[in-house]
Design brief:
It is built from 1 helix and 46 strands. It is an all-beta fold. The strands form 12 sheets. Strands 2-3-4-6 form a 4-stranded antiparallel β-sheet, with no helix packed on it. It is 2% helix and 47% strand. The N terminus is likely disordered. β20 and β21 form a beta hairpin.
């Protein structure tokens, strides 16, 4: 986290024309370096704003533009409770009305905070740096806060879990863990305690599998509202069905549950109240802003709402404004105005020549030294280049312009380069070209999708990988993918030795083929004999992205977390 903070600090300092006095200086979200300018805000509409009402029914709190405001329940000019460069949002009154829980990134990551109802005495409750917290909810006694903690696994979609913290701070404890463990991408969010303190309600993605998917149909019922019995530990579904059910909000007496459900025809959402004893549901507003059930919903699927203290209605946000709807159907808009001065950094802008006659090449792929260290080969701008390191001269390996060139590897004597080609219409091949004068040759007798060729130690054979097409490339010639070896003289037919694996290379004595394979969360280095038999495992790592064995077979290099490592 500190490395990221330092990079941001450096970027902002350069943009502002300043320098870093000390790279160990603590980064401050509240007081970042650089010039600022003031922007005046005067608005009566707000975007995706959580709202809550004080227990005495006199005051609304809400968030907009990264700060928390209070306003009389009848509306009017709002007063800022926070006013700084931190992003403060999702306020919730404590049961006695003396404190407000909220989420803020003021210490570098989004965590649960508590302040007095007048905006003073800010105190951090959770101190996460990796797993962001949202959706604060007070326990009935006001001593604890529940929040939605996000976990990222293989994708940027965070799986949800519900954690509870004492309001004084601490490490917290999990109440509702991720579904399917560490690989889960399914959301659990929007915790809400029952007024008697026995139950914890929450929304949960109840679709099958562990993977979050795009383009789901929310009208079929993606989410359900469930509740955890804090005495017995049992969990049950309270509301489900077409349109789903999100943002559970308990009435003051605990007998009714307000929630949001998706409309089937209009693709908007509606506010529904369910009698928990009879199961009867009543729609109070059928034209809410569209909820976020199709998205990750990491900050909640709909802005938080609140019951009036007498239980006769609710206040909520929709369509840019706050509304009050009574149980008898009477509805009114609460007119709120925010006037504020916001400090922002000027936009960082650079002059860019869109189409220069000359430009530096910044992406050199598959670069490597020749065996004697006098030359290098790499791909740039779609073609292979030989770099004479002694004279600092560069020239194309070939003179053709019919196809692009990929994955170069020197021969053991450094006189040839094996590589693959590709063209959108003609597809690809595996070829060998001389370094200097001479004729090249093609090792494959049919078009295909070829990658990662490598010479044997004596230069007599080549191993390569055949992959499948499709997506952005042609699906043709995609049969029998896997690892192949072929004579380097171009006279023989390629022979498939394995139907799996990637990045193949010969062992130092030429008797085995080393390759990598993804096994669950780890990348494993394996080998087989030249017939594809006698499979062995040699090394594995959870965050490893690539392996390379030295020519003498004594060392293993690998990349992990953007660093290169060497191990015997």
């Amino acid at each position: 986290m500190k490395n990221i903070q330092t990079l941001i600090l450096l970027f902002l300092s350069i943009a502002a024309g300043t320098t870093l006095a000390d790279e160990n200086d603590e980064w401050s979200v509240i007081e970042p370096p650089g010039d600022r300018e003031t922007v005046s805000i005067d608005t009566t509409t707000f975007t995706w704003a959580d709202v809550d009402i004080s227990p005495d029914g006199q005051t609304l709190v809400f968030h907009t533009l990264g700060d928390i405001y209070q306003v009389p329940v009848e509306g009017g000019d709002a007063e800022a409770l926070t006013d700084d460069l931190a992003w403060n949002f999702q306020p919730r009154f404590s049961p006695d009305g003396t404190r407000i829980a909220f989420v803020s990134d003021r210490n570098g990551a989004e965590n649960l905070w508590v302040m007095d109802a007048d905006g003073s005495n800010l105190q951090e409750v959770s101190s996460e740096t990796d797993h962001l917290l949202h959706n604060p909810a007070w326990s009935a006694d006001g001593d604890f806060l529940a929040g939605r903690k996000g976990y990222v696994s293989r994708r940027s979609i965070p799986a949800g879990s519900i954690w509870m913290y004492h309001r004084s701070g601490g490490q917290g404890t999990v109440l509702v863990d991720r579904l399917h463990g560490e690989d889960s991408q399914k959301n659990i969010a929007e915790p809400a305690f029952s007024p008697d303190g026995r139950y914890l309600y929450f929304s949960q993605d109840v679709t099958s599998g562990t993977v979050w998917q795009y383009n789901k149909d929310a009208t079929e019922g993606l989410f359900a509202i469930r509740r955890l019995d804090l005495e017995t530990g049992e969990t049950e579904t309270v509301v489900s069905g077409p349109g789903g059910a999100i943002r559970p909000t308990l009435s003051p007496d605990g007998d009714s549950l307000a929630f949001v459900r998706r409309n089937a025809r209009t693709l908007t959402s509606r506010l529904v109240v369910r009698d928990l004893r009879s199961g009867q549901e009543t729609t109070l507003d059928d034209d809410l802003e569209r909820d976020k059930q199709e998205t990750s919903g990491d900050m909640g699927n709909y802005p938080a709402m609140a019951w009036l203290p007498d239980g006769n209605g609710l206040v909520y946000w929709s369509g840019g404004q706050f509304h009050r709807t009574d149980l008898d159907g009477n509805r009114e808009t609460i007119e709120v105005r925010v006037r504020a001065e916001k400090q922002v950094h000027p936009a960082v802008r650079f002059d860019i020549d869109v189409s220069p006659d000359e430009f530096p090449v910044r992406m050199h792929r598959w670069a490597q030294y020749s065996p004697n260290g006098t030359q290098a080969v790499y791909q740039a701008l779609g073609y292979l280049w030989i770099h004479d390191l002694q004279r600092d001269r560069r020239q194309r390996l070939t003179r053709q312009n019919d196809h692009f060139e990929f994955h170069p590897r020197f021969s053991p004597d450094g006189n040839h380069v094996v590589y693959t080609t590709f063209d959108d219409e003609d597809l690809g091949s595996v070829r060998i070209a001389p370094v200097g004068r001479g004729a090249g040759r093609t090792l494959t007798d049919e078009p295909g999708h070829y990658v990662e060729p490598a010479f044997s130690p004596d230069g007599s054979e080549v191993v390569f990988r055949k992959i499948t097409g499709g997506y952005l490339t042609s699906p043709l010639w995609s049969e029998r993918p896997g690892l192949y070896r072929v004579d380097a003289d171009g006279q023989g037919e390629p022979e498939r030795i394995l139907d799996k694996g990637a990045s193949p290379q010969f062992s130092s004595d030429g008797s085995r083929i080393l390759f990598s394979e993804r096994d669950d969360r780890e990348l494993v280095l394996k080998s087989v004999n030249l017939d594809g038999q006698d499979e062995r495992e040699h090394y594995s790592g959870e965050w490893v992205t690539e392996y390379s064995v030295s020519p003498d077979g004594r060392w293993l290099a690998f990349t992990e977390h953007f660093n290169a490592w060497v191990v015997p």
